Amino acid sequence: MRVAALIVAAGRGHRAGTPLPKQYVSVAGKSILRRTVEAFEAHPAIDRVQVVINPADRALYDEAIGGLETQAPCPGGETRQQSVFMGLQRLADDPPDAVLIHDGARPFISAALIDRVVEGLRAHDAVLPVIKVTDTIKQIEGEIVSGDVDREVLGRAQTPQGFRFDPILKAHHDLADTANLTDDAAVAHAAGMDVHVVDGDERNIKVTTPEDITALSANAVTARTGMGFDVHRLGPGDHVTLCGVRLEHDQALIGHSDADVALHALTDALMGAIGAGDIGRHFPPSDPQWKGAASRQFVEKAVALIADAGGQISNVDLTIICEAPKIAPHVAAMTNSLSAMLQIKAGQINIKATTTEKLGFTGRGEGIAAQAVATVMLS
Question: What value does the CA radius of gyration of the chain take, rounded to a whole number of Å?
Fold first, then answer.
């Protein structure tokens, strides 16, 4: 069964109280619409994603969706019903077997909910996800309660609403000149189709008010933590390089690159936070191009990978383990060096040093070790 997703994003969203239509509002570096589109593009059951927009918003759309492989957007109409019909007509150029019609301002759509709707379409022409009403519902006349409503027969409709393609296209065609219907299940029902219900998802909210955008901001970012550890032995030389800073010393760190043990540990922590492997995968010591290389290149590569993943570095904590040289006099310079490499403020960086009380290889002055922890916020 070939399934298309039709994402309706032609509305203006005035109730959200934002200067832009709400679907283009950026939350944690990513627009609401992009989050919605990405959810469908990532789902294995979805073969095609078509977005319907207000033609005046094309520049906003291009900025929000840039880099995704979704096809060109379709212009929408004055009402949601008109916009959906125009989107269905665009899909009819290469008709799918089924279509999932979804609100562009519902970015919390889960793969499990998409699964339920798609599975329902294997046996039914129309599928509607609903949330059963659990509150007691009262009928009100003026300021007086006039009775109770049976909540057992009530449900809150959500999207994506799924349909076999040909019947829903015909339903929209036949009802195009009727009064505005607020969702596609209503169009299907008015056309005589039986609408099958499946369980919705309480998290699948439609962003409507400023409070919804605040809630989205709170839930849109995930904290990821990575850890790194590295060791380099000491040998003949007159300085060591730590955090990109030269420290005069009667020995030097030995390694294929500049042997900046602190930056190596930090690189592993940063890459670990986004699941990007380790320094050896990206900069193998067997590769002669890294012989004598400045380790800041490794950190800058990790920073670029984090940016590509849609992440931001929250903070790093670095511990240098050695008997000598003394680290404390150089912490400020090291912090400023890392601030420039990581593109974060000095207050987000913590550098400290310790010894092993003369125990082990660091205690005997045979080498320097470093460990790092990095937290990255992924949207």
Answer: 28
Residue 78 φ then ψ, to 5°: -75, -25
**pLDDT digits over 128-181, tens only?**
999 999 889 999 999 999 999 998 889 999 999 999 999 999 999 999 887 778
Model confidence pLDDT, tens digit, residues 249-271: 999 999 989 999 999 999 999 99
Report residue 199 as tokens.
């369980």
DSSP-assigned letter for residue 179 = S
Name which of 8, 9, 2 is nearest 187 in CA terms: 8
Q: Any idea where the domains of the chain sit in the sequence? A: 3-219, 222-378
User: CA torsion 303→304→306→308, rounded to 10°?
Assistant: 170
| Contact (Cβ atoms closer than 8 angstroms) between residue 269 and residue 226 | yes
CATH of 222-378, picked from 3.30.1330.50, 3.40.1180.10, 3.40.630.30, 3.90.226.10, is: 3.30.1330.50
For the record, the structure tokens of 369 come out as 């070790």
- CB contact at 8 A, 129 and 159: yes
Measured N-to-C along each axis, helices 111-120 and 32-41 cross at an angle, to the nearest 10 degrees, of 60
| Count of alpha carbons within 13 angstroms of residue 223, beta-carbon side | 8
Measured in residues, the chain has a length of 379
**Predicted confidence (pLDDT) per residue in 176-200, tens digit:** 887 778 899 999 999 999 999 999 9
**Nearest residue to 241 via CA among 250, 230, 252:** 252
Residue 11's beta-bridge partner residues?
none
Topology at the third CATH level for domain 3-219: Spore Coat Polysaccharide Biosynthesis Protein SpsA; Chain A (3.90.550)
pLDDT in tens, 5-30: 999 999 876 554 566 788 888 776 67
